[in-house]
Amino acid sequence: MAKDFFKRKEKKYVLTQSQFEAFKELLEDKMERDPYYVTQNNTIYFDNDNDEMIVNSIHGTDYKCKVRARHYAGTGQTFLEIKSKIYGTVFKRRIILTLEQYNDFLETGLLPKSQIGREISYVFEDKELYPKIFIIYNRTSYKAKEEQSDLRITFDEDLRSSTHNLDITLDEEMVRYFEEPRIIMEIKTKEGMPPWLVDYISSHHIYPQSFSKYGKIFTKARLSQIRKEQHAHV
């Protein structure tokens, strides 16, 4: 059964294609492929007219919050969730919807009754949220071999987005974020990294970076808009 609550630490790294391939070779030995090894993640981020959620996320310090819907291409499910980050720890609370329920929610604002559903409905109403940006990437996932470990490592490729196409099932009218191939690696765990992973990252000079997909795409689009406005006044 899919979990509806997560609490963990997440560290992000931006890799070149060669770093990605080398890391995958290591993980094929040290970890095992996730049951959902390769997926296409389609995500709608919700915000309001003032872009309040993403602006607070970019400039916030101790507490950050995003509201999003995630659909795994080829499935009939959509996860509607609140993702919060408090003092570096990530919390996710989500409900699972069918595509029909998700589309009905966009039309009516109504969700199946549950505690988390009520929390999500309150945030949507209080913040006046609606779909703002659609982000897609292709994910490769590994999990720990040991049952007691919650370590998970994911690689996200071909990051692309659209503010025109907001249909969570359509991979159309998307703009790529990176000009050259780059892969976003996330290391997720509550318990800390095993020594072999720390040693590999250190010896290969791979350093964590702050990389919010929504935040980076929003910032790039805003800078592009400012440049266009400046050029128009020249």
How does the SSE layout of this entry go?
Blueprint (H helix, E strand, L loop, with lengths): L4 E11 L1 H14 L1 E16 L4 H8 L3 E10 L4 E10 L2 E10 H10 L6 H13 L2 E14 L8 E11 L12 E2 L6 E7 L5 H9 L9 H20 L2
Antiparallel strand pairs: 1-5, 1-9, 2-3, 2-6, 3-4, 4-5, 6-7, 7-8, 7-9
Query: Per the principal axes of the C-alpha atoms, what is the gross shape?
Result: globular
Helix-strand pattern? EHEHEEEHHEEEEHH
The number of helices is 6
In the sheet with the most strands, the strands line up as 1-5-4-3-2-6-7-9
Overall strand count: 9
Mean pLDDT level: 92
Our estimate of the beta-strand percent is 35-45%
Which structural class is indicated by helix and strand composition? alpha+beta
Distance between the termini: 58 Å
Helical residues, percent: 25-40%
Low-confidence stretches: none
Q: Output the radius of gyration.
A: 18 Å
Major sheet characteristics: 8 strands, antiparallel, barrel
Brief write-up:
The protein has 234 residues and is an alpha+beta fold. Helix content is 32%, strand content 39%.
